[in-house]
Amino acid sequence: MNHTKYRVWLWMMLLVLVTAGVAWYLLAQDKEEPMTDGTLVYRTVQEELA
Fold first, then answer.
1. Residue 26 to residues 7, 13, 22, 23, 34: CA-CA distances in angstroms?
2. Distance from CA of residue 37 to its chain's centroid?
3. Distance between CA 21 and CA 44 in Å, rounded?
4. CA-to-CA distance for 43 and 45, rounded, in angstroms?
5. 1-50 residue pLDDT tens
6. What is the rounded distance in angstroms from the CA atom of residue 14 to the CA atom of residue 19?
7. Considering only CA atoms, which of 13, 35, 36, 17 is closest in space to residue 25?
8. pTM here?
């Protein structure tokens, strides 16, 4: 009986994780932020003086 409970628990956790991952991916896909947000960008001296 313990093995059955463990297997059901594992399947439920897998289902929850997959569902959460798909939801997170779909919600993150809706955001339209520029690609440079949060990335290191090289700046020239002229840009720094402006």
1. 29, 20, 6, 5, 17
2. 15
3. 39
4. 7
5. 789 999 999 999 999 999 999 999 888 876 666 665 566 666 666 656 65
6. 8
7. 17
8. 0.55
